[in-house]
Amino acid sequence: MRILAVLASIGVAGCTLPGSSSTSPPASPPDVPRVWASLGGDAVPEQPVEVLDTVDVTGVVVADATWIDETFDRGDREPPRVLTIDGDDGSRWLLGYGWSEDPTADPPAVDLAPGDAVSLRYRSLQSFGSAYGFVIRDGDGALVGATEVGSWGDGLEPDDLPEVAVEDGDEIAREPTDCGTLVHRSLVFTGDTTTTLAPLETGTVTVSSVDLTAYSLAFFDLEDACPDAAGLREWAIFR
To answer: Which domain holds residue 53?
Structure first.
């Protein structure tokens, strides 16, 4: 499915960690999947920004499908899924999302149909590393999906997702590397209900009487780290 002949994009997020493999997980510490939160389209700047950049889009859904023959200009791999939105101002936007190497589930399709009203908030932070995040809402403002990929900072701000708090949980495992110790932790998702998930676990969190699926994809801190190393926090929520 060819949507645009030429795309400019900001941000394709992924990570391969010292001492961890995306194809053969270590015996005790959890594996770390590659997670995407990327944006392309005819209104996206050709060069990524070096500070926090926020994009707000309102429009209608065109399609949500696996990626076939287009690539985002930045990043070495194609996102597993792409949500296409036609903005109210006539622009076209492409949101690449999903994850790989996750044995718990394939990336879900967004719970919206072509022609449905949609709003998107997308954030990117480019510094020593990168952080990305997005929140998708339907025409009534209800939460449809969100993803955060945070390294050297958080991909989302607290006001982006006021109905769900995602907080640090307990230590799960430790993994020594040449650049410090990876301390893997659980994540705590709190809406109307609370669920605590270890890395690569899924669970249910209720928001405004609607059950959503929460995905704890990766979360670790680094102790005694090298100067250019940082922790990572990756999660997703989908209706």
So the answer is: 8-238
